[in-house]
User: Fold this.
Amino acid sequence: MAKQPVFKDGQVLRFSTAARVLHTVHLLSFFTLLYTGLARLWPETNVLLGGDLLLGQTIHHLAAVVFIAVPVALALLYPRGALHFLKTLFSWDKDDTRWMIKFIPWMIRPQAVKLPPQGQEKAGQKVSAWIIIGFCLLIAVSGGLMWIAQFMPSELMKWMYAIHDVSMIILLFVIVMHIYMGVLFPATRRSWTSMITGYVPEEEARHGWRKWYDDLKKGQQTV
Amino acid sequence: MAKAMLVDLSKCIGCRACQVACKEWNQNAGEKTENTGTYENPPDLSPQTWTKIKFVEQNSGDNVKWLFRRMMCQHCTDAACEKVCPPKAISHLETTAVVIDQEKCTGCKYCISACPFNVPRYDAADNKAKKCTLCIDRISNGLIPACAKVCAPGAVQFGERSDMVKLAKARMDALKTKGVNDLRLYGESELGGLGVMVLMTAAAEDYGFPDKPSFPVSVNLWQDYLKPLTIVAGGGGILAVLVSFIGSIGYKHKQEGGE
Assistant:
């Protein structure tokens, strides 16, 4: 995909086109999966599909393929980007620990709390990404086995249904928080444009991801 | 008063009339199967076969001894299938029978994975789980289940639970005097008491029954702890969002330099 400039009109590039495509596709497929899944469990909610349970199942299966295939395909197409993302996620320093300690006071009273400078991803973003990736893996594996449940030992499936169910609830709540941080929370709500255009205002980047921003300025970091 | 079925395997002769009666009463079609070298047929329970006799071959000296096992829903008092069913399609009717309401079933297969006896079967034809209903349409009208009605040697009995226990105990005493050991009334207390108790003349595992049938750990962990916990945590999360939103009223985002 076409390279975008890192700095443009007072804005900074945070996410490549590939990352944004992945995010959008995952968002759409997640909510499709959530709705068709819930419509299977509580048929009274199955109004959009006119009560057709098998249609819901077919859509659930198709969305599941997209949900799993797109991140896998993008990781294979852009191995360097994927590796960089994972390295960022699993890096941790003292500022991250200090950030996490101040996270709750900051959430409650952002005007009164000064946060330590952060790298490409804030400590809280990293933790939420671990949870999201972990439970996405669990829900994908358990769901894949549920698809072929009739060939699987029932001892195994007794756990898979439970894992699928609980992962769904956890993901739902993490994503509610994620959306809150991105579009509502006054201290961070300006960042949502980064998932549409790829860019955030330069001031926003300097404010939120100070170490990453400084490195970018020095030309030492990639996006 | 709770009803119960007693399957006295010491009397079962493996004639499979119960299989036929079950299909006939419930209008379940027959299945084309292949000879696999045993009298046992069809090979397994299916959406169309809610009960069958399993022929367990045991070596006894130079001879082969048959153990007959009646495969069917055991109608547990503590029914795991009922607990996991999301649309609450499974319930106890007439105090004993565990019945899947075919109108409410969404074919999610949770009950299939939860059953300690591996009984319910998924029917791809209409996307529903199927199993024995204990002939709910008969017992709610004062009749006994079709299999009990047809059993020639009287191995299948149906009636008041206390009477069935008494009957089984008397039979066990009689068998003991004849020198038959290894007797067990399976389901008298297992899983809160099975609606279908089985009088066994061999170890439960020899028949293919779990020795100590239990409510699946995963089902309890999931339904009693994980689910409530995640829902409480999620509620807490939403509360936190509200607190945060109210707390940050008046927050000015620094557009100009210096933190």
